[in-house]
Amino acid sequence: MSNFEEEKQLLEGLALNDRAVIEGIYRDNYPMIQAFILNNNGNADEARDIFQEAMIVLFEKAVSGSLELHCQLKTYIYSVCRRLWLKRLQQMQRLSSLAENSEESVPVEEELELHEKHNTDYLIMETALGKIGEPCKSLLDAYYIQKKNMQEIAADFGYTNADNAKTQKYKCLVRLRKLFFAQYKNGQ
Amino acid sequence: MDEILLIETVERYLKGEMTLQEKTFFEEIRKKDPSIDQMVVEQTFLLHELDKHADIKAYKHSLYEVESKLIEDGFISKTPLKGKAKVVFLWKKYKRNIAVAASIAGVVSLVTTGLISTYNSKVGNKDITYLYAKMKDTDKKVAELKDSLTQRTKRNPNPDFRATGFLIDGKGFIVTNAHVVNRMRTIYVENNKGVYFTAVTIYSDPVTDLAILQINDTAYKTVYNLPYSINKTNSDLGEQIFTMGYPRNEIVYGEGYVSAKSGNEGDSTAYQVSVSVNPGNSGGPVLNKNGEIIGIITSKNSIADGVVFAAKSKNIFKLIDAVKKDSDSLNIKLPNNAGLKGLDRVQQVKKMEEYVFMVVGN
């Protein structure tokens, strides 16, 4: 199998949240990124942080179905991490010029912009879910996030039947909708 | 239609759980009623977002698990690595020496901070960031433009630094930070209306990092009745505060609370406050809810977020005493008014605005 197809398969695995694939990508790429961050004013904790964020960028890319990186996976990860780290340094006002590195890098600005948007959306949803209170939060979590069915939920939450749980779930959804859009439209 | 019933219908529609007849009927309604259509669009979006949220959450969970497994395996190191550890060690050693030297000289810890910060900047790991701002080219252009509009040529067209200061006497005495004025050869202050005046440093104290400027411009007219007072006592932990300053070319308001009764490394002449500040905020007044000045923004921790230091306001009294010893002719009278008390915040800020100055220079 060619390198290209192999990496495409990795991304497919990533989109399916396959841990073996995640671990493989860590093992192949993390040492390079850690060395880069340590060489440029960072520490091990920050290296882990940056790599994690790059893994999320990669996941978003894999899920969105654009599985073509137009470059080696390694180069892609390095470019994303480099960009993220530069930004972090700027925010912390610790910016000195980055040490010269022999790794090649590709432009990833657009993807990172998209990633930031996803990140904001994620946080808005997280806040909205945090605000709706219990039992709504657990109920919606069970149904939409853990994808349990209504019978299970009714049993777990002590509703007399699935219909009652369903009505309660819809009430919660109405509340979530209001909270989410209030925040979302604000942020636009 | 009942909201819950509607949301249920929309969900069934989106999931494709409707019979053909139902679906046709629903699509009819949707076409006729834009509010229903809007609801479908929003609902689709919300469910999509929820889905995305669920996926990312599950994925993050996997990331954490993989990461902790790799840490356990020793593949990823958790503690700072060797190279870094050396820097930390040197830094600590250096700090201790300085602390000893400082205590001998009877100088308090803010000086230590200053030295360490200079030292650290060499290895590129500053703990403390002073909050004066270097002027960007665009800012300079704006300044030049303002000059040409107001037809004043007095001002040096190229200020390098920008910070904040505020009036402590309407005759034209302004408090700002020592680290601000020490960087400037010529100093100008500009009020919120964009009018600027030349000023000179009459006193600067590196220990508390405070300085007093005097406006020596004939165009300046004495203002009477500064509406605030300067607090002589210590503020309480958790007290609500607000600050105003010039992190940009325009005055910026920020609010927070007193988070510790001492400053950097236990410095008792300062507070730690939690408020959002940026370079340029240096020298800005920190006020409590009654509109009393309790401190002056000086620096922030460059690594930890929201750790900001402010010199205590009672230092101003000491400064004034020192100035009086130096020269009898300067009769600075500190304001003691409660003109901001009981006003709502917007009014307080509005009243305060004209007494907070941008300090620029090169």
Characterize the structure shown.
The complex is a heterodimer of chains A (188) and B (362). Chain A is 74% helix and 0% strand. With 188 residues, chain A is mostly helical. Chain A folds into two domains: 3-107; 111-187, Arc Repressor Mutant, subunit A (Orthogonal Bundle). In chain A, α2 (19-39) crosses α3 (44-63). Chain A is elongated. Chain A starts with a helix and ends with a helix. The mean pLDDT of chain A is 84. With 362 residues, chain B is an alpha+beta fold. Chain B folds into three domains: 3-73; 82-126; 134-361, Beta Barrel (Thrombin, subunit H), CATH 2.40.10.120. In chain B, the strands form two sheets. A six-stranded antiparallel β-barrel of chain B has the order 9-10-11-14-13-12. A six-stranded antiparallel β-barrel of chain B has the order 3-4-7-6-5-15. In chain B, a hairpin with a 6-residue loop joins β9 and β10. In chain B, α1 crosses α3 (34-73) and α4 (82-105) packs antiparallel against α5 (109-123). Chain B is elongated. Chain A binds chain B through residues 17, 19, 22-23, 26-27, 30, 34, 38, 41, 43-45, 48, 52, 55-56, 59-60, 63, 92-94, 96, 118, 121-122, 125-126, 129, 140, 144-147, 166-167, 170-171, 173-174, 176-177, 180-181, and chain B through 3-4, 7-8, 11, 42-43, 46-47, 49-60, 62-63, 65-67, 69-70, 75-81, 83-84, 124-126, 129, 279, 302-303.
Helix/strand layout:
The complex is a heterodimer of chains A (188) and B (362).
Chain A: H1 3-15, H2 19-39, H3 44-63, H4 73-91, H5 109-131, H6 136-145, H7 150-157, H8 162-187
Helix pairs in contact in A: 1-2, 1-3, 2-3, 2-4, 3-4, 3-5, 5-8, 6-8, 7-8
Chain B: H1 3-14, H2 20-32, H3 34-73, H4 82-105, H5 109-123, E1 128-130, E2 133-134, H6 137-150, E3 161-169, E4 173-177, H7 178-181, E5 187-190, E6 196-205, E7 210-215, E8 229-230, E9 240-245, E10 252-260, E11 270-274, E12 285-288, E13 292-301, E14 308-312, H8 314-326, H9 345-353, E15 356-361
Parallel strand pairs in B: 8-13
Antiparallel strand pairs in B: 1-13, 2-3, 3-4, 3-15, 4-7, 5-6, 5-15, 6-7, 9-10, 9-12, 10-11, 11-14, 12-13, 13-14
Helix pairs in contact in B: 1-3, 2-3, 4-5
